[in-house]
Design a protein that fits this description.
mainly beta; five-stranded parallel β-sheet; four-stranded parallel β-sheet; 13 strands; 57% strand
Length: 100
């Protein structure tokens, strides 16, 4: 788990979050997220999310989200996203890659 349930978070980084089992998230359930960076979020057997359940996201960057045994998401169940990017969401199933 990276950064969870924070209100008004800016200029922070979730870097190299690894989960051997279960899900890996860079940012989860955060609000007013601005200028943040999520990189190398990896789950060996679950899902990997750069940002999950976050609201009011601006100027954020997601890079290298990997889930060989699950689904890789840049932004999952997030609202009000502006000027943000999701660069590489990878898994080995090829049919479950989602970019939001």
């Amino acid at each position: 788990m990276g950064i969870r349930q924070i209100l008004r978070i800016s200029a922070c980084s979730a870097f190299q979050i690894n989960a051997d089992s279960g899900d890996a998230h860079g940012f989860e359930n955060c609000d007013l997220v601005a200028g943040n960076f999520s990189d190398q979020i990896i789950s060996a057997s679950g899902n990997a999310n750069g940002m999950k359940g976050c609201n009011r996201i601006s100027s954020c960057f997601i890079s290298v989200i990997t889930a060989p045994g699950g689904v890789a998401n840049g932004y999952l169940n997030c609202n009000y996203i502006s000027s943000s990017h999701s660069l590489t969401a990878l898994n080995n199933n090829n049919n479950k890659i989602r970019r939001h």
